[in-house]
Write a structure and sequence with these properties.
- The chain has 4 helices and 6 strands; from the N terminus they run ββαββααβαβ.
- It is α+β, with helices and mostly antiparallel strands and 143 residues long.
- It starts with 10 loop residues before the first strand and ends in a 6-residue tail after the last strand.
Length: 143
Amino acid sequence: MFEDLIYPNAEFLFEVNGLGGPMAPYRFYAVEEVDIDQVADFYLERLSDFDVELDEVAEGHRHLMLTRTESVLEQLGQVADPTELPARGRELDGTLIGVEVVHASDDTSISRLRIARHAYDRADDIPAGSVVIVLEYFKNVYG
């Protein structure tokens, strides 16, 4: 999944439910020995149709969060007949919703990484010193 959006040499770490529950999971990847600006620029170039939710330097490391302009939830909200939700859900299944690029040491920002670290106790699964990439996507729960 998302093969064309995975930064070169990034390693899949794990997946957890996001703030949207099982409908919006987070897939975590890590890449080592790379400049975080290169990774952030990679996603800014490929996802020019996404909104920049956050792009700042904190604690000496860049933190980038991108969000899709037209959200999947807005598209689902436009479905007038609830019996059509399964079909629309299948069409949208796997749609990328957001991307986060953050240094593994970041534990102060409100982030998907912080959620995984504290709400799911996955801190030990995050390689120290790496750049963490989080892909948030829509997972069809309508059947």
